[in-house]
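Consider the record:
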Amino acid sequence: MADPKPRKLSLTSRLLSSLKSKKSPNKNRNPSWASSSDVGSEIGPLSANSITSGISKMSFGDEEEVFIDIQTGERRDDTEMLHSLAHHGSFGSLKSENEQRFGEDSIPGERLFESLPEGVWGCVIGYLGMSDLAAFAFCCKTFRGRLGREVWPILNKPENRDEKLQFLVKLDSSLPSHLLCPLCAIYHRRTRIGDEKLKATHVLNPIFNCLYANEPTELPIRTRLVPGHRLPFTFVQLALRALNYGPQYGIPYSKLDRRLKDKESDWTHQIRYYHHKGHLLLRSTSKTFASPGLTLSGQRHLLYSREDYTPYFSVCAHWQNGLLMDLCKCALSHIPVPVDPITSQLKRGPQITLSRPAKAIVTLCGKCRPMRRCPSCPTEYLIEIRLDEDRSEPNPVARFKQTIVVTRWSDLGDGTIPMGSREWMAINGVGEFEGLDSVGKRGISGTFESQNGVAIPGQRMLNLNPKNKTDGEEGDDWY
């Protein structure tokens, strides 16, 4: 009788048989860490979980347990791997390892610089300015011995005052209780550490004792905000020092925020600050109620201060060169004029015009609606006509009135020294600014408003001075 055909194994059975450990042809070459019987008894029949993971836990001795990869047979110990990454022993062992690597007779850094030839030193020094040479000599004794002490007396001469200020700025992080005075180029001790407050211009508010604090100077150490209020450069220093080095170096920039009311007019101001990439940004929003149908003299009376005939709102030093005041007058002309009462119309003739409800939203034209950017400094303007409530109005019907709102955004610079911050110098009308491209792809207004996650409505950004006029006060277009 013929033997029956062998039964075909299923796929699962063939897979299990292929994964079983095979006996070594050389029985004497068993692993040193376990016998073949131990391995077979430890692994046993493979389950579905072991096929999936491919890792089996094995016991060696009484306590130690390690993981063995069944596919590769590699021993895996995660604990030993983590401990191997740690440094064992004292830091003296690191020193001994470095000595073995570089040799016990390795030259220290100072002696290595001392051994450089004179030509190399002269080449390095030739690329450095006066302030960098002073900082170079201030590093260590080796550099001071090479450069000598003459660099500091030379830096202290009056003609090298700007270079001296650039050198002193490098010491800012080591003097939390002092503040660099740009007038006399000396670090003065702060008299009100942590309690500095911004006050009106007519109030004496020294934050350190300086002999030249009240002396007239051509250096722009203050910038105009609104009539009667200026921002000293020292407060820009304090705000940015606190952000860069710590709260003991200055004050939070939120302490500079103000809500102001002009004493001579109905203008109100809200001034806020924001820090972005090492610079202090300013936003000043000024508004007042505007009557419809103002004449040209009435518009001037509304916009200009009679004290120095400058705008009531915050402006940069180039406001007379561009179209800023013309745009404000254009926006005022869009306020709708209400219809006269019927009795007044009948006095003029038999024809009458019925009154219509006033528009709550005033639409500006293509000239005064877009935002404007000053081409001579990092400043942007936005002019709006809004409907606000006048709570002082006794008649409830006429309580809501149109207001003109002028918002200014400016970059005040990095707060190092006035002449070292091109943004600060530019908004005060000193020096040259590269133009619109240097501000960046994103406007200052968009950067400022993005801090609260609120984006202003999309506006075109146009040039405030398209004809590039520089007449200033001599011109008559601004009047």
